[in-house]
Design brief:
Blueprint lengths: L1 H17 L2 E4 L5 E3 L5 E5 L6 H6 L5 E2 L5 E5 L4 E10 L5 E7 L6 E6 L4 E5 L14 E6 L4 E9 L4 E4 L1 E4 L1 H36 L2 H21 L2 H4 L3 H9 L1 H19 L6 H23 L3 H4 L2 H19 L3 H24 L5 H4 L3 H84 L4 H26 L5 E2 L1 H16 L4 E6 L3 E2 H22 L9 E9 L2 E8 L13 H13 L3 E5 L5 E7 L6
Parallel strand pairs: 1-6, 15-17
Antiparallel strand pairs: 2-13, 3-4, 3-6, 5-12, 6-11, 7-10, 7-13, 8-9, 8-11, 14-16, 17-18, 18-20, 19-20
Helix pairs in contact: 3-4, 3-13, 4-7, 4-13, 7-8, 7-10, 8-10, 10-11, 11-13, 13-14, 14-15, 14-16, 15-16, 16-17
Length: about 625
C-alpha cells in the first residue's frame, strides 16, 4: 500500500513538473490534447510502462495537434498527458486516438490500474467507432496522468488525440461513417454501372475498370478501418495485414490492364512491350517481397514504379493527341494531388487532415468519375465513328449499286437487243418456211393435201406473228393479247375469204409462254369456224366472238360462233381439236369445254403461271 502511494505521489509530482495540465469539465465537448501533451520516442522498442514511470525518461513538450512520422516500424511513440476535472461533479469522457490504421495502441490509466490494448490488430469486438477509443473517468477536482503507447509496422505512424463528450463524439462518428458510406456507395454505383456496360458491350476495358474500382474500395475499407469493425475478426485481420501488399498492388495491377486496353497501348509497340513486361513481373515482385523478411520496407516500390510508368505513358499519349488520354491524365492528376497530399501529411510536412479530412476519398471518387466519363466518351466516340462509318458505307454501297445497276442495265439492253434479233430471225425463218409451203401448195392439185398445207401455213403464221410482236417490244414478259389476236385472225380471214364479223372482248395481256399456246389454240378454233361453221344457206349475219379476261389469277378464253354447229357424238375429233385439247391440258394446265348445240362455243380456263416457276 505504501509503495502504491509513493508511486502515485511520484506520478503526480512528475506530471506537475513536466506536463501541462489539461483542464476539462462536464461542458467540454471536444478538446485536442496532443498539443498539450509530452512525447517520447523509444527507438529501442523495449520500454514498458514501468520503465516509463520509474526511470528518468526525457519526455519532451509537444506543440503540434497532429504528429506524422511516415512509415516507422523501428520505434514506439509514448504520449503522456494530464487531465484535471475542474468541476465538483464526476465526469466521463472519451479519448479518441485519431488513426484507425496504427497497428498497436495501448492506453494506460495507472492510478486506476487500467491497461487497454487497441489498434488495427486489436480491435475490441464491442467497438462501434472507426478509430480506437478509451473511456476516461475523473472524480470531482481530480487530476490524473495517462499514457499512450503507439507503434505501427504496417502503415504510416500518425498520432492524434481528442477528448470528447459522449454525445458529441458519437454524433461526429455517425456523420463520419455516413460520409464514408456515401463514398463507398458512389464507388459501388460506378462499379455496377460499368459492369452492366461491360455485359452489353463486351469491351474488356469496362471489366478491368470495375475490378480496379472494387480493388480501390477494398483497399480503402482496410485503410479507414471499416473492415476490422464490420466484416472480419482479429484472427482473419491478422492474415489480411500479413498480405497487405497484395491489397495495395491489386488495384494498380487492374489499373494497368485498364489503361492498356482503354488507351489502346498495343498501337505503340515499345510502350506495350514494356508494359507487358511490368505486368508479368508484377506478381513475381509481390511474391518475392512476401517471402522477404523486410518486405514491408519495399512492398510498395514495384506498384509505385508501375504507377509512374502508367502516368508517363498517358502523358506521352496526350502528346500524341489520344482523345481518351486527356480524361485519364486528368484522373491521374487528381489522384497524384490526393496521394502527394496524403504522403506529405503522413511524414508531417503539412496537416491537410485538419482542414480537409476527406481528401483521399474525394480524390479517389473524382478519379473514378473522370475514368467513367472517359469510358462514356469512348462510347460516344465509337457511336460517332459508327455513324460516320455507316454513312460512308451507305455512300459506298449506293455508288456500288449505281454502278452495278448501270452494268445490269447495259447487260439487259444487250440481252434485249439479242433476244429481239433472235425473235426477228425466227420470224424471218418461219416466213421463209411459210413461203416455201405456199409455193409448194401451188403445185399440188389434191385439195385435201392443199388444205393440210394451208393449215400448217396458218399454224406457222400464228407463231411467226408472236415473234414479230416480241421483236418490236422492249418488255417481252407479256404480250398485248388484243394486238396479237387481231393480227393472227386477220391473216386467217385473208386466207379463207369468209364474210364473217369478228367481235373482240379482250381486257388483259398474256404471259409470253402462255401466248404461244393461246395463239395456236386460237388459230385452230378460228380456222375450224371459218372452214366448217358457216354454209351458204345461212342468211343471218355471221360472226365469231373472241373473249379473253382475267379474274384474280384465272384466265378465261372463249371462242364462239353462230354457225350450224355439229353433233359431237357423230363427228370424230380432228387433229386440230386434239391439238387444242393437248395444249390446254398439258401446256396451260387448264380445262376445256365445248358446246355445239347453237353454233360452237369453246371455253378454256387456266391459271396464271407463278413467276418463280
Amino acid at each position: 500500500m505504501i509503495k502504491k502511494l509513493i508511486l502515485i505521489f511520484t506520478m503526480i509530482s512528475t506530471s506537475m513538473l513536466y506536463a501541462e495540465t489539461i483542464v476539462v469539465d462536464e461542458n467540454t465537448q471536444k478538446l485536442e490534447i496532443l498539443i498539450s501533451s509530452q512525447i517520447y520516442i523509444d527507438k529501442t522498442r523495449k520500454l514498458n510502462i514501468d520503465d516509463i514511470t520509474k526511470k528518468d525518461i526525457g519526455f519532451k513538450d509537444n506543440d503540434k495537434d497532429l504528429l506524422s512520422y511516415g512509415y516507422s516500424p523501428d520505434f514506439d511513440v509514448w504520449v503522456k498527458f494530464t487531465l484535471k476535472n475542474n468541476s465538483d461533479k464526476p465526469i466521463q469522457k472519451i479519448l479518441e486516438y485519431g488513426n484507425s490504421m496504427t497497428t498497436d495502441v495501448i492506453f494506460y490509466d495507472i492510478e486506476s490500474g487500467i491497461e487497454i490494448h487497441e489498434g488495427h490488430l486489436h480491435t475490441d469486438e464491442e467497438r462501434a467507432s472507426i478509430n480506437p477509443v478509451f473511456e476516461i473517468s475523473l472524480n470531482p477536482n481530480q487530476t490524473k496522468t495517462f499514457y499512450i503507447k503507439a507503434s505501427s509496422y504496417i502503415t504510416t505512424m500518425i498520432v492524434k488525440l481528442n477528448i470528447w463528450d459522449n454525445n458529441s463524439f458519437y454524433s461526429q462518428e455517425v456523420k463520419h461513417q455516413f460520409i464514408l458510406a456515401l463514398f463507398f456507395g458512389a464507388m459501388a454505383i460506378l462499379a455496377i454501372y460499368n459492369l452492366f456496360v461491360y455485359f452489353f458491350t463486351r469491351d474488356i476495358s469496362y471489366l478491368f475498370y470495375v475490378l480496379y474500382i472494387v480493388g480501390i474500395s477494398v483497399h480503402h475499407t482496410l485503410y479507414v478501418g471499416i473492415v476490422n469493425i464490420y466484416f472480419v475478426d482479429q484472427f482473419i485481420m491478422s492474415y489480411i495485414v500479413e498480405f497487405a501488399s497484395i491489397f495495395i498492388a491489386l488495384p494498380i495491377f487492374f489499373l494497368a490492364l485498364f489503361s492498356k486496353t482503354f488507351l489502346q497501348i498495343k498501337n505503340y509497340p515499345i510502350l506495350n512491350n514494356l508494359l507487358n513486361l511490368l505486368l508479368i513481373l508484377f506478381p513475381v515482385s509481390i511474391s518475392i517481397f512476401l517471402l522477404t523478411d523486410d518486405f514491408n520496407k519495399f512492398r510498395n516500390i514495384f506498384p509505385i514504379l508501375v504507377l509512374f510508368y502508367l502516368i508517363a505513358t498517358t502523358g506521352y499519349l496526350v502528346y500524341k493527341r489520344n482523345r481518351q488520354a486527356y480524361f485519364i491524365i486528368s484522373g491521374w492528376l487528381v489522384l497524384a494531388i490526393g496521394g502527394l497530399t496524403m504522403y506529405l501529411s503522413s511524414i508531417g510536412i503539412i496537416n491537410i487532415y485538419q482542414s480537409f479530412p476527406y481528401i483521399v476519398e474525394v480524390s479517389l471518387l473524382l478519379e473514378a468519375i473522370l475514368f467513367s466519363i472517359a469510358l462514356s466518351d469512348k462510347i460516344n466516340t465509337l457511336k460517332t465513328n459508327l455513324i460516320v462509318q455507316k454513312r460512308t458505307e451507305n455512300e459506298r454501297l449506293e455508288l456500288q449499286v449505281q454502278e452495278k445497276t448501270k452494268d445490269l442495265e447495259l447487260s439487259l439492253e444487250e440481252k434485249t437487243l439479242l433476244l429481239q434479233e433472235l425473235n426477228h430471225r425466227v420470224k424471218n425463218n418461219m416466213q421463209m418456211i411459210v413461203s416455201l409451203i405456199r409455193l409448194q401448195t401451188n403445185d399440188i392439185d389434191d385439195k385435201k393435201i392443199q388444205s393440210l398445207f394451208l393449215t400448217t401455213q396458218n399454224r406457222l403464221n400464228a407463231m411467226s406473228e408472236l415473234h414479230e410482236l416480241l421483236y418490236q417490244k422492249e418488255d417481252i414478259s407479256y404480250i398485248n393479247a388484243y394486238e396479237y389476236f387481231t393480227t393472227l385472225i386477220e391473216g386467217l380471214q385473208e386466207t379463207y375469204k369468209q364474210d364473217v364479223r369478228i367481235n373482240y372482248t379482250i381486257d388483259t395481256d398474256l404471259q409470253t409462254e402462255q401466248a404461244i399456246s393461246c395463239g395456236i389454240i386460237l388459230n385452230e378454233l378460228v380456222t375450224n369456224c371459218l372452214k366448217y361453221a358457216f354454209n351458204d344457206e345461212q342468211k343471218e349475219e355471221r360472226y365469231i366472238d373472241i373473249f379473253l379476261s382475267k379474274f384474280e389469277d384465272k384466265y378465261t378464253l372463249i371462242v364462239k360462233d353462230n354457225g350450224a354447229g355439229y353433233d359431237q357424238q357423230k363427228v370424230k375429233k380432228s387433229f386440230g381439236l386434239i391439238l387444242v385439247t393437248t395444249l390446254t391440258e398439258s401446256k396451260l394446265q387448264g380445262s376445256i369445254s365445248i358446246d355445239t348445240k347453237n353454233g360452237v362455243e369453246t371455253i378454256i380456263i387456266w391459271r396464271e403461271e407463278d413467276e418463280e416457276d
